[in-house]
From TrEMBL:
It catalyses: 2 R'C(R)SH + O2 = R'C(R)S-S(R)CR' + H2O2. It comes from the Eukaryota. Residues 6-106 form the ERV/ALR sulfhydryl oxidase domain. Its main location: mitochondrion. Keywords: Disulfide bond, FAD, Flavoprotein, Mitochondrion, Oxidoreductase. It is an enzyme of class 1 (oxidoreductase). It is found in: Mitochondrion intermembrane space. Its cofactor is FAD. This is Sulfhydryl oxidase. Its EC number is 1.8.3.2.
Amino acid sequence: EPPAHCPPDVEQLGRATWTFLHTTAAYYPERPTPIQRANMLSLIRSLPMLYPCSHCGDDFGEDMKNNPPDVSGRVGFSKWLCERHNEVNVKLGKERFDCTKTDDRWKDGPTDGSCG
Ligand code: FAD
């Protein structure tokens, strides 16, 4: 783990980006307005072009061609994003995450209260 004042490596950048995306998904409206949907689509669709790990962005863009973003609401979008993250996990030999647990991880915290 490089010191905190160093530029991010691919792992740190990934953790920070997933934190942003999953948290944004967790707080996306249940019933987004057309403008909110359009903004979320723009955010997600711009990642393949802008994400500063180009092979990561390329693969994400390919995956998105087969699995278009579901921006219909919080539940569907959180699930869609969890599945995309799992595609990356599998590619990297990491464990799949249980997509029924995304709210516990990114919004509500565990039921044992250990996160305060
Ligand atoms: P991360 O995968 O960063 O996950 C952070 C935390 O999210 C985990 O600790 C877990 O609590 C939670 N989590 C895990 N899976 C899920 C899920 N499915 N849904 C919800 N929460 C979950 N790295 C590469 O080396 N090659 C790539 O091609 C690549 N592509 C990427 C594409 C994108 C769009 C992004 C955002 C990142 C990419 N990364 C890539 C980075 C990679 O996904 C990881 O972020 C990095 O390897 C650090 O992994 P980590 O084990 O710390 O946990």
